[in-house]
């Protein structure tokens, strides 16, 4: 299995605190992340889960918070029940969100590793841009307050 990584970013015209809230508040996440129910207490070592339904199939994705600096950075392990892989350590990916605020704009950097193929990398990057583009629109319009 290849260990391909990706980094992508999106600029959001809002303070980092608003972007952080949009990343971690389950009610806001559900609105832009395909109706997903995200649950975590956002502490190092804690579980994080995403449950929902996609194209008629239910899913329960999960991982652990590996590192967190509330308000600016989180890194978590991630495994998807829809990935077609067994739920074992070598099939988990690490995903990170880093926020940097400058002049009223917050840059959200998304990182992901342990991607199997270049096609999967491209698919993931498109998904991140779509998901966080929708989040950006909510935050910038005030719908995520």
Automatic annotation (TrEMBL):
All copies of domain Activator of Hsp90 ATPase homologue 1/2-like C-terminal, residue ranges: 13-139
Pfam family, one: AHSA1
InterPro entries xref list: ASHA1/2-like_C (IPR013538), START-like_dom_sf (IPR023393)
Family membership: Belongs to the AHA1 family.
Protein name as it appears in the record: SRPBCC domain-containing protein
Species this chain originates from: Mucilaginibacter corticis
